[in-house]
Amino acid sequence: MESGKLYTGGFKKNTKRKIITGLLVVFPIFITYIVIKFLFGLIGGLLSPVVKESFILLGISLKNSTVDEFVITSVAFVLTFAALYFIGVIATNFFGKLILSFFESILHKTPIIKNIYTSSKQLIEIISLPGTKAFKRVVVAEYPRAGMKAFAFVTGSIKTKDGIKLNGVFIPTTPNPTSGFLVYLPDEDIMETDMTIEDGMKLIVSGGILAPEQVEFSKSGLTNEMREG
Fold first, then answer.
1. pLDDT value at position 77?
2. pTM score, two decimals?
């Protein structure tokens, strides 16, 4: 009777493990599909009416079928990115910068719109910056009080009039790393790690679920190891 219970318990545990493993495989794929589908429809939908009217003017018959809608959205999707590219080209030359500065000056003087525009621009700039430029390295700092360790990113450094170097340390919030706290700490108050920026971001966004099995960190020339468990 005892062996039967063990077999049943083992079977349930094994079945549960397999289901969870299958979920871990399928769920990220499903979420990726939903996000891509949403972005495809959103971006492609911007120019879909223009593409549809262009097809009609060119004498291309549309039957409003699913295939026709997919073709229209696909063409609009490509044209949207092409338009963004050419806008970027124009915005980087001299006259484009003058025009952009003129419109930005108007937006910055408009209540409410000014805050929305500034915030969205800053968010895009943070996301578009390569990891090596936005963040220098992953470190550990005692925050929000002594004894508590928080993973953070070094963004740069400044020097005081006395010549003391202070590291700009950005401590992101979980799971949204676009917000957080900026503190300035001397070298002796931060602990270096061997983690890449990508691994650090995964750790923050996942709330510690996607933590590396082993992280080496050093302080004042001493090397130690933080091991899982």
1. 81
2. 0.46
